[in-house]
Design the sequence.
């Protein structure tokens, strides 16, 4: 007889955070055991929305893998709290139906916002609670001055984050700092040190694509610094990143900036402000997730654009893992997760205090010295480091242990 577990995500099925991470973990788990049926609830946002035919294909594919999918239309905009309440009630109704029909053992919240919803549902339906990758997002929002500590949004999210820590039966946490935080609220829960991990066998360096893309960009010997992802919010804004690059470029004209982002208009405005020459950069819109490793392969070093606020030691940037898996080192601020520690310990990155205050000559020399290693040697070392610290096997193993414990 198979066990049933509800998996709750605030991301869409095509969002890289769900598709490339949690969904991959579930698929791998069922490849090895097949003893669990997962009931996956996702919030489908417009940018990732599948048409009717693709949705049907996805339902069929997942069902064959013992994953039953329940997509909910993500509500946003005005009257946000009311819309979140509606989304919650939709989720609760789905969970009640699953409970009555399948008697699930537990509910697992993927990341802390879904974890908050999962906590409430676990109490209502008397389910064991698993929080996968807890991060204190309420503290992030205050550090970045997006919310104030007096705001209702902060108070609600902060309250539910603490309730997750206090009530979770199982917690996966990205850093040792996160484990220390969780132990303050619930020393008895089962905890796993587990930075977000990726499939390092499919996300890898590709020499052919490197050459193709560099030729297309008209670049041969320049040092490409790549950044992939959003700007603003809980990242640096585009003005700050372009300014940082320009300082490096003024020190060494052999640098080239390659940005892949949905915020292309903002980046182009920032480039105009800095008056970058057209042969020093290339800006692209988002590329398919499966093709991202090709573009990263074309670069020499990646940029993790996370400011060094105190709360960022609890964070788990996916970018650093993807850069390493594609064979390139990264530039990161001190105090970001434990990626700064890994960068120094394994010699796979450059650590700075802040992009606003750094020794340009020193950083330039550090980059040159790091990249002076024989290319293939550095690529293999970066890839092995990615597998060691951020390989998908780490997540699958931890989840397998949690599920076996639940079943037993």
Sequence:
């Amino acid at each position: 007889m198979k066990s049933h577990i509800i998996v709750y995500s605030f991301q869409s099925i095509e969002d890289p955070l769900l598709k490339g991470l949690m969904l991959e973990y579930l698929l791998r788990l069922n490849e090895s055991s097949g003893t669990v049926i997962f009931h996956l609830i996702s919030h489908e946002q417009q940018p990732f929305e599948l048409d009717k035919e693709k949705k049907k294909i996805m339902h069929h594919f997942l069902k064959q893998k013992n994953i039953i999918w329940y997509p909910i239309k993500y509500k946003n905009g005005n009257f946000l709290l009311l819309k979140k309440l509606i989304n919650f009630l939709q989720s609760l109704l789905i969970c009640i139906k699953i409970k009555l029909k399948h008697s699930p053992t537990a509910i697992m919240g993927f990341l802390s916002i879904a974890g908050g919803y999962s906590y409430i549902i676990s109490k209502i339906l008397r389910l064991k609670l698993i929080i996968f990758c807890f991060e204190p997002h309420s503290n992030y929002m205050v550090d970045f001055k997006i919310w104030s500590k007096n705001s209702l949004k902060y108070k609600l999210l902060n309250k539910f984050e603490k309730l997750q820590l206090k009530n979770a039966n199982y917690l996966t946490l990205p850093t040792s700092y996160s484990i220390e935080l969780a132990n303050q609220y619930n020393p008895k829960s089962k905890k796993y040190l587990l930075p977000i991990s990726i499939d390092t066998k499919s996300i890898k360096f590709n020499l052919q694509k490197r050459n193709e893309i560099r030729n297309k960009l008209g670049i041969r010997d320049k040092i490409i610094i790549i950044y992939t992802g959003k700007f603003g919010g809980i990242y640096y804004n585009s003005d700050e990143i372009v300014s940082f690059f320009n300082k490096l470029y003024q020190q060494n004209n052999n640098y080239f900036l390659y940005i892949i982002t949905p915020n292309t208009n903002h980046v182009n405005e920032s480039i105009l402000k800095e008056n970058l020459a057209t042969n020093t950069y290339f800006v692209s819109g988002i590329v398919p997730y499966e093709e991202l490793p090709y573009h990263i392969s074309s670069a020499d070093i990646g940029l993790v654009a996370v400011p060094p606020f105190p709360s960022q030691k609890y964070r788990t940037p996916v970018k650093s893992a993807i850069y390493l898996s594609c064979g390139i080192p990264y530039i990161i601020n001190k105090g970001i997760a434990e990626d700064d520690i890994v960068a120094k310990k394994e010699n796979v990155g450059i650590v700075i205090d802040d992009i606003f205050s750094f020794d340009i000559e020193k950083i330039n020399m550090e980059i040159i010295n790091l990249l002076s290693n024989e290319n293939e040697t550095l690529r293999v070392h970066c890839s092995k480091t990615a597998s060691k610290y951020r390989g998908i096997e780490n997540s699958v193993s931890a989840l397998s242990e949690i599920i076996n414990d639940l079943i037993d």
Observations:
- The chain has a mean pLDDT of 94.
- The chain has two domains: 3-197+392-407, 207-390.
- The two ends are 13 Å apart (CA to CA).
- The chain has 16 helices and 13 strands.
